[in-house]
Amino acid sequence: MDTLGPRIKQLRLEAKLNKAALARRVGVSDVTISYWESGAIKQIGHERLVALAKALNCPLSMIIEGESGSASPLYLRSRTPLPWQAGASRNIDLPIDMVPNQRWDGECYLVTPAPGESFDFLAIGDLVAIAPTEIFRQSGVYLIEQQGQLLTRQIQQGSTGELLLQRQDSQEAEPCTPESRLQGKLVARWRAEPL
């Protein structure tokens, strides 16, 4: 645990946060953040470590143990920033044969709804592979941003080429407005089921 301070600093820098911003998110002073990062304070309580993990959008194990070698799910929240922009994140390699009939290239992230958050087409405990994209690629469920809020909507192309958004609980599709920005395509979902 002697490298806890440098790990906190590294994760803070990766999250593009200054000490004051991280301190506000965790509920401590920026001086406390400085003491943690320098190692002047070596013991950090569990509640503060959990708050740090949430503020840095990383698993608690990454703060305590460092790089785990595998990607952990990122929390999807209803407000920006996007999960992969909010802190230390690692993309996943998703074998193409696991997601038939999907087309995407580039990065893919493992995401789950954050506690207390609700999204169309996602249940608590679902794991989702999201490929960041600002381009419509084919019909499916997309992560979109509207006025700083993140939503999931079924998107399809209309007969004249316009994009149509549909909520999970609606049969009616509505046209995509200029305020709606595509942020990612959900390319795979794993549903938590009791054994």
Automatic annotation (TrEMBL):
| Residue ranges of every copy of the HTH cro/C1-type domain listed in the record | 8-63
Task: Identify the Pfam families for this entry.
Answer: HTH_3
Which segment of the chain is annotated as a signal peptide? none
Q: Name one GO molecular function term.
A: DNA binding
In terms of Gene3D superfamilies, this protein maps to: lambda repressor-like DNA-binding domains (1.10.260.40)
Coiled-coil ranges (or none):
none
| Descriptive protein name | Transcriptional regulator with XRE-family HTH domain
- Whose protein is this, by species? Halomonas cerina
